[in-house]
Amino acid sequence: VERAAALAAGLRARGLTRFGIDTPVVADMLALLAASSATGAEACVYPPEMPAGDLAAAFRHDVVVSDHEETAGPAQVVGPDDLLDEAGDAPRAESAPVLILTTGTTGFQRGARHDWARLVASVRHPDPQPGSRWLLAYNLNQFAGVQILLHTLASGATLVAPESRQPQAVLETMRAHGVTHASGTPTFWRLVAGTLDETTAADLPLRQITLGGEVVPQALLDRLGVLFPDARVSQIYGATEFGTAVSVNDGRSGLPLTVLDRGDEADIQIRVVDGEIQMRSRIGMLGYHGEDAADAGWRATGDLVEVSEDRIHFIGRRTEIINVGGAKVHPIMVEDVVAAVPGVAIAAAYARSNPITGQIVALDVVARPGVDTDALEEEIRSACQHLPRAARPRIIRFVAELATMGHKLVRRRGATDDDERTDA
After folding, report:
1. What is the mean pLDDT of the chain?
2. Are 50 and 109 in contact (CB under 8 A)?
3. Which residues lie below 8 Å from residue 29, measured CB to CB, with a gap of 6+?
């Protein structure tokens, strides 16, 4: 708190109204975000996967607060300690904007302009939970990370920030600090679950598991239920632009159809139009960076769904559809089949250009340690024979790890001729 006050004084002294944050030190991120909210300066935490110079240019930041020596392009780099000033009494800002970037798994990040007052108002204020420990598996440049921070503060819990977000390091942090609540993407939980069995999972005192940001497969929910039978498992649906819309904990993949029945008084409303979810939010963003204020009406999310009986099932993102000779293939359909093959740790399907069909399905696979990849390839191809012909992977690559951003799969990469395996 003292550091945040001193940073706020430094922001006022320099007259900064907008700036980027490029540091791996979570404590400094928190202090800078708190300082910006006090002064009304619009802060933006940069994702660690992207060059700071590119982001500073894209979002027109003249100043980047960073402990890195390298340049941030045309922006001036100021170290956190250099920004400190003597704190004193000062009026709080009338508005407190913050720029939160979209993940960018299907393109360059967009900046969603939020206001801290609206973000805080959207947090459900639970009973005090001073004994709870929440894992920060997201980065604070992500909307979900900000939500975890606000929920932890509202409940008086402890925030546990791992030094690394590699699954093994995260598990060691969870054990060492007794994490009771953990929220992450399905990709994150697949990687974590892949390193555990029922005996090793029993060492973790988890009471709450939350998944969000991607489609949640039923197989993953079932696996987490086996590993952590005493934990409550919840799915969160929302978006950087709209906020958290739905929380589901009935153990079934997808959303209940009742989410479409919310009245006009609801903060966030949901509807399905032509197979795509649309949302309307009173607590969402003010608008995108560089654009006019957001329209308060319905907005398309890009999330494609199928409605079956009492459930809304997610089938993927509009931007990730693979067009194979006019047949539309959703990567998740392929990935779910491949993930069920013994020996597969995780897989990602994506489009590869083809002169005959326009696109074909390519597949990157991370095999479990010690698995014969030649035999595994045959098992994968056999399992995929049950898919429509257009959805069967023509290229299979075995890789050490998958491309991710913010622990979400990136399905925009292609294969090289040197390491691909193509069927006849």
Report:
1. 89
2. yes
3. 21, 23, 45, 140
